[in-house]
Design brief:
189 residues, Double Clp-N motif, two-stranded parallel sheet, 10 helices, 2 strands, Clp protease N-terminal domain-containing protein, repeat
Length: 189
Amino acid sequence: MFERFSKDARDVVKSAFTYVEGGGGGSVEAEHLLLALLDREGSRGSFALAALGLGPDEREPVREALREARRRAGLSRAESDALAGLGIDVAEIVARVEEVHGVGAMSGDRKDTRWWSGRPSFGRAAKDVLEGSLRAALAQRDRHIGDEHLLLALTVRPGVPAEVLADHGVTYASLVRVLYGAGGEAKAG
């Protein structure tokens, strides 16, 4: 599949590995792909983000929201709300764990969880995004998978990245409008 990736899309994947190797966990996850996309400039994905109000100077709140979700062990608001419905206060659990083990203890950034080779691999969420990017490219009849397709795939996969992007006005529908105009209505599921 990677042979269909454009240079921009390959650079996003390489940058995602850099985030993991820099202490961001044991495997590449969807959050790492989003962080790598936020670093891009001069690509279709970065153009789309800027057109939707997330230019390079406006991306720090997205990074902060991802850091905060990581502190909550990667739980989305929907998951935290569901636990609250069961009487479980995620904020209280995070506070207690951090009181004992330090800030960020629930983030999953432990270095001793890597596969035996010492090289990070793709987690389930990242694999879903990569597969979704292929579906997004096919839905738009694009020959190659660009960073914009990774961004589209992040918006349709349930979880923290889609939630954070939606909070900042970046949804699948808004991206399709920016990237393809009114005619690009196909869904990349």
